[in-house]
Specification:
single chain; 77 residues; alpha+beta; three-stranded mixed sheet; 18% strand
Length: 77
């Protein structure tokens, strides 16, 4: 089913009910399809720790770099 934006605004509750019951709704602007109204599919859970063992963090990661400090704060007098 193709529905123009103005009609979709007016009948959003009805369209969502139709989608809930398995129908696919195409929202169009000037009869040009723009978006699909489909049921939400939850994504899987995120996996934590994907980079364990693949990334080396240097011991001095929090050390300041004098060149960068000079760019931000200028040269000390």
């Amino acid at each position: 089913m193709i529905v123009n934006i103005s009609e979709a605004k007016t009948h959003l509750s009805r369209l969502i009910d139709r989608v809930y019951h398995g129908e696919k709704i195409v929202i169009a602007k000037n009869n040009l399809p723009i978006a699909d109204l489909v049921p939400h599919k939850p994504e899987g859970k995120r996996k934590l720790g994907l980079l364990i063992g693949k990334l080396d963090v240097p011991d001095d990661i929090m050390a300041e770099d004098e060149d960068i400090n000079e760019m931000f704060y200028g040269k000390d007098s």
